Amino acid sequence: MIRALFRTLAQALDPALLRVMIRSFVLTLLSFVALGVVVSFGLDRLHPTGNPWLDPLVTVAGALGVVALAWYFFLVVVAAVAGMLVEPVARAVERRWYPQLPPPRDASLWEETAIALRFTALLIIVNVAVLPLWLLPPVGAVAYPLANGFLLGRQYFDQVAVRRMPPDQARLLRLRYKGRIFFAGLIIAFISLLPVVNLFAPVLATAFMLHLFGGFPPAGGTRGPQPGASRANS
After folding, report:
1. 8 Å CB contact between 130 and 143
2. Whole-prediction pTM
3. How many domains would you assign to the chain?
4. Contact 202, 19 (CB under 8 A)
5. Are 174 and 157 in contact (CB under 8 A)?
6. How confident is residue 26, by pLDDT bands cut at 50, 70 and 90?
7. Is 72 left (phi over 0), alpha (psi -120 to 50) or beta?
8. 64 in a domain, yes or no?
């Protein structure tokens, strides 16, 4: 896992990856703004009527609520954007670190779309379910990263794994290394909540999981990238 992190950071300024990071920045920023507009519209429906003392307070509280809720659900935005950037990130990472690999398997559009939709829906449902737990801050502070770390680890792993093996074999591999994938998901959740850095999180997290996947012996099927076979760091 440490190797995967270092290799991800070592390629952060690679021109091929920078181009994808610019796309990630634009897509994530636009999605965040859209999320803020949606939340703002919903909160605006709760605006009081005609009270000169209460209206300004609700306006300020509503603005703070927009920022807080948009930040809270930002993990969903990051996960959705990541699903659109898996292939260009994978090509850039494999071109530098694993040039000996054969072309990836021809994963169907349905496989990729199903993974993205399934986990985006799960993230929304889980985060809505966890939201009331923040009324008890210690409980919410524990439940939020644990739940999202579990889901993000699964999502990112499945997205990179199906490029190299069928979904059933990817599932077996995920179950075999579920502990490491869970901790990788916690790291991704943390990165996704860091201001500014989270705008590039879809690219960084995908590259990180590609390297992690490359270190797992395959559970049958096509072998993924292996650290020992990679090109020397340069």
Report:
1. yes
2. 0.78
3. 1
4. no
5. yes
6. confident
7. alpha
8. no
